[in-house]
Amino acid sequence: MEIFKQTNFDFLGKKWPFILLSLALTAAGLISLAIKGGPRYGIDFTGGALMDVNFIKRPPADEIRAALHKRVAGEIEVQEVSNSQEVLISTGTRSAQQSDQALQATRDDMVATLNAEFNPNSGGKLDINTAGHIALADRLRDPLAKAGAGLSDDQLQQLAGAITSYRDTPPRSGLIRNLDELSAVPGVKPAVLNVIKQECFPGTFNIRSFEFVGPKIGADLRQQAINVVLIALAAMLVYIAFRFEWIYGVAAVIAVFHDTIITIGLFSLFNKQIDLTVIAALLTLVGYSMNDTIVTFDRIRENLRMQMRGSFSEIVNKSINQTLSRTVLTSGLTFLTALSLYLFGGQVLSGFSFALVVGIIVGTYSSIFIASPILIFWQNIAEGRKRRKPGPAVVDNRSRSTAKPVKAVNPAKAASK
After folding, report:
1. Across the strands, what pairs with 76?
2. DSSP string, 189-210
3. Of 83, 197, 327, 374, which is least packed with CB atoms within 10 Å of its CB?
């Protein structure tokens, strides 16, 4: 399918605005990284805890942050998840000296602080919205026996598992608002429900997930992520140099490196975290941008083999026009998908989708306005060297061997004449 036919846009004539834009974005990103001391890594790379908390009625983020600062040391970030009552609470540190035990203690302090701040009237009861099925079974064992509704250990574990499963199943999503709801759970008879009401209470929040990464593991993951990106670029350079020419590989790798640097710089400018999902997005963009560049390079090579008339610049420009429909269709549809993911994917996928949106835009124009001009620049240098190189002296030996000898003239005879 071609949406553009027989186009003849002068792309290379408009290259300088895009080159200047790339230089400006690169400089701004590098300056931001230098001022901030490098990228803002997530807990995947620095070590820390990430807790996903779902509230019945979400308190303001500043209130949650202020409460946690009372007992939890270090950096604390609270991000509200749009279109829900969830918040993402993260604690991280740039210090590699923080131990895994300290981070685990931080997790316990976070839970205790949230309970003290938002469940102040528990009366010593067990929060049924945060308790696991083992803790719930242990809390109910003796009271059920005293109430004459004693259960065997297997029956008690099944009952506790049924209650927590009911709690975690949509539409409740971890939150029981009224204990009377539990009457719908199999095995919860009136006598059992009365004991549950005596020993438990429905808290105002539920911890949906908790992630914990030690600082040593985070440092290893960060180094591995850097190595993966560099190895991918090196492998692509070798492959393209083998399939085309080495200058094609250099141009493609420079364009992809340009895309990566600008994307990371924009993450720094917008103060966004870089975690493992962002690294996955960057690797996706490396492959995507490289593929887009290779399609253009392959058309250039085909046109050169067909000995198309015109200068090298004209052939490159013609090749870009010939692949324009493919570029617009592929990049446009991919961009719409990534943009939808960014707008509606939620806070968890924000970094991943932001990297895709930015990378697709930058990667598309770099294939045209960055990689192709590098080829032309190198071609001009090569042609200039050929013109400056002096040619070898040609000696006409044939004329020297066949020329007739010239007779000497007697000066006396010449004078008498």
Report:
1. 91
2. -HHHHHHHHHHEE--SEEEEEE
3. 83
Question: Which residues, in sequence order, are bridge partners of residue 98?
Answer: none
* Residue 354 DSSP SS3: helix
Q: What is the mean pLDDT of the chain?
A: 82
Gap between the Cα atoms of 236 and 257, Å rounded = 12
Distance CA 3, CA 5 (A): 7
Q: Is the pLDDT of residue 389 over 70?
A: no
DSSP 3-state of 122: coil
User: Position 304: which residue type?
Assistant: L
Owner of token pair 């090298």: 312
Residue 109 half-sphere exposure toward CB, CA atoms < 13 A: 18
Contacts of 185 (CB under 8 A, 6+ apart): 162, 163, 166
Q: Is the pLDDT of residue 382 over 90?
A: no
What is the distance between the alpha carbons of residues 295 and 239, in angstroms, rounded to a whole number? Answer: 14
CA 137-140-144 angle, 5° bins: 130
Output the six-digit token pair for 7.
């186009």
Mean pLDDT of the 224-253 span: 83
Q: What's the CA gap between 315 and 212, in Å, rounded? A: 55
C-beta contacts of 357-360 below 8 A and 24+ residues apart: 358/262, 358/263, 358/266, 359/259, 359/263, 359/281, 359/282, 359/284, 359/285, 359/288, 359/289, 360/285, 360/288, 360/331, 360/334, 360/335
What domains are defined for the chain? 12-39+214-386 (1.20.1640.10), 48-119+209-213 (3.30.70), 126-203 (no CATH)
Report d(CA 219, CA 291) in Å as an integer. Answer: 31
The answer, yes or no, to whether residue 216 has pLDDT greater than 80, is: no
**Which tops the pLDDT comparison, 217 or 142?**
142
What pLDDT score does 225 carry?
A: 81
| Residue 203 tokens, joined | 């808290």
